[in-house]
Structure formats: structure tokens, C-alpha cells
Amino acid sequence: MKNISIEEFAEISHFTSEETAALQEILNDPQLRNKAEIIAEKCFIPGVYNPLPEFEENRELSQCWFAAAYLGCSASREHYRCYGFPESVWRETLTDLSVWLRNCKRNNGFIGLAYARPWTVQLYAGKVTRHGRLECNSEYFFHYGKLVDADNKVILDYNDPVINLHIPEDGPMSMKDCGTSIRRMAEFFAKYRSNFDYKGFICSSWLLDSQLADMLPESSNILKFQKLGFRFLLNEPADSVFRIFGTSNPEDIEKPTYLQRTASEFLKSGGEFRTEGFFIPRDDIEAAGYDLNVLIEHYQYIKYAKVISESKRLM
């Protein structure tokens, strides 16, 4: 399968000239290119998830993954065609590469894919797609257990189909942009995944940690986003420290942001971050016309839910 040009790949993925030059330099190195070809063939081209190659973790591996993303991009485009997804969705999804390249540069000082390798496999296989401000799984089933509200009414059962939201770190998340994104997802599923009768939208993230209310101003879009559905706590590790501080020691950041300052104080006091989630019933968001401000007003106050795990259900 003939690959697209580096220039087209860079344009689709929104690379800077520095990132494009870095890619070309990696591909011009025979040893790096050979390793990149192995990664692309094993992880991207077959269209199924294979075990990741067991190469030594270092700077070169991150660079090789960047090159592998290029070498496998035409195969990824073909996967999307086979699913019947429009090319516009494939192009928009590939912009996530630039997010992780800049994350690597910020934390490691070089351009490569250091932290999002399995994630990139999912993007390339069409398992996760981007629709404006947010991303989502193209198929996802609620696997935590049974979700019940304050009256113990089941609002989501184990293995129910849902649209799982993801929040790329490449810009502000206004309620208008997020609402437009969720509407686009609903339209995408109606047209290309019509047999997937989803119950609503879920999201689990460090951004949904209710403790952030003490670390962010009331006007924060993150805090508004937390109010969109039934909130529930998850027994999962939170990647908040990395998301907020990267690989830097909080004490060594010369010009910390407001969140970095308050989060640092939180950690010094012995605080521990959490992963939380929310669930928005499909009927609720459709009734709100995908206007998230209307949805927040509909709930009026935060609604809480709890997860009853499968193990507890079987006891």
C-alpha cells in the first residue's frame, strides 16, 4: 500500500515545521527507520491489536514510534474506509498525534511519541475517533458494574452500550464546543453505527475529580463539565500528577499555573487525587438539544451515583 507524503501527513496531523523536520530526520536514519517499520507492521498495518514490540525504552524508541505512525497512516486510512467512516473523521482523529508530540517535547525535550503508544494504536484502528473538541470510542460497553442513583434505581447496567468520552489536552473546553462535539458524535453514531443503541454518554477522567473544586476558580470550564451528569467515584489510579505537572517536580516549576500552585499545596497537605466519572442519560442530553448549559440547569445540582461491582453482585 503506497503511503502518503510526509507533507500531507504533516498537514493532516497539524505538525509544526520543527515536528515535520524531526520526522524526516528519523526516516533518513536506516536503523531508526528499520525499527519504525517493525513497529508499524506489528501495531498498525494488520488492523488488530498485537503485543507491542519489546524494544528498550529510550529516546530512540519514542522517535521510532513517531516514524511508525507515519509509515502506518495509509493503513489506518484504509481501516476507516473499511468501517465506512468518512475520511474527514480519520483526518480529524490524526490531529491527536500533535498533542502527544508536544507532550513529549514538553516533558522530555525531544520530539517523539513517548506516552501514547497503545492509545495511538486505538486511534489508528478507528477504535477511538475525534469529533471536534472531544474524542470517543467507536464502541464501548459499561464494564464497571451496575450504576445506581441515590434511590438505588439502576440507571446503567453492566455491559450496557455507551459512548465513552475522552478529552484531548489541546485547548480550552467551552461548554459550547463540548456540546457541539457531543452532538456530532450522536450524528456520527446515527449514520455509521446505527445498530449501536447506546444508553448515553460516560466519561472517566482525572478532570472529574471533585476535589478540583478547591483548586480551580468557580468560572472554570472543568468544573462546569463535572456537572453534566450523574457523578460516580472509581477505584482506579489517577494520572493527575502527570497531567498537571508532567515529569517535573512540582517544587521546581518556575512559573506555575494557578492549578499547579493549588495542586502542589494539595499534595503537600497529604491529599491524593482520584479518578471520577459521570454518566449522561441519552434522553437527558437529547432533551437539552445538546446544549450543555441547558443540561446543567436541568440537573440544578450535582447528582451522585455509585457503582456496584460485578463481584459484589455475585456475593
Secondary structure elements and pairings:
Layout: H1 6-13, H2 17-27, H3 30-43, H4 59-71, H5 73-83, H6 87-94, H7 96-108, H8 117-124, E1 128-131, E2 134-137, E3 146-149, E4 154-156, E5 163-166, H9 175-192, E6 200-205, H10 221-225, E7 230-234, H11 240-245, H12 258-268, E8 275-281, H13 282-287, H14 292-299, E9 303-308, H15 310-314
Parallel strand pairs: 5-6, 7-9
Antiparallel strand pairs: 1-2, 2-5, 3-4, 3-9, 6-8, 7-8
Characteristics of this structure?
315 residues; alpha+beta; nine-stranded mixed sheet; 15 helices; 14% strand
Word description of this protein:
- The mean pLDDT is 93.
- The chain has helices at 6-13, 17-27, 30-43, 59-71, 73-83, 87-94, 96-108, 117-124, 175-192, 221-225, 240-245, 258-268, 282-287, 292-299, 310-314, and strands at residues 128-131, 134-137, 146-149, 154-156, 163-166, 200-205, 230-234, 275-281, 303-308.
- It is globular.
- By secondary structure, it is of the alpha+beta class.
- Strand 1 and strand 2 (134-137) form a beta hairpin.
- The chain has a nine-stranded mixed β-sheet.
- Helices cover 46% and strands 14% of the residues.
Spans of at least 5 consecutive residues whose pLDDT stays below 50 are none
Largest sheet: 9 strands, mixed
How far apart are the termini? 53 Å
The helix tally amounts to 15
- Broad structural category: alpha+beta
Number of beta strands: 9
What Rg do the Cα atoms give?
21 Å
The side-by-side strand order for the widest beta sheet comes to 1-2-5-6-8-7-9-3-4
Average the pLDDT over all residues and give the rounded result. 93
Element pattern in H and E: HHHHHHHHEEEEEHEHEHHEHHEH
Share of helix, binned: 40-55%
Relative strand content: 5-15%
What spatial form do the alpha-carbon principal axes imply?
globular
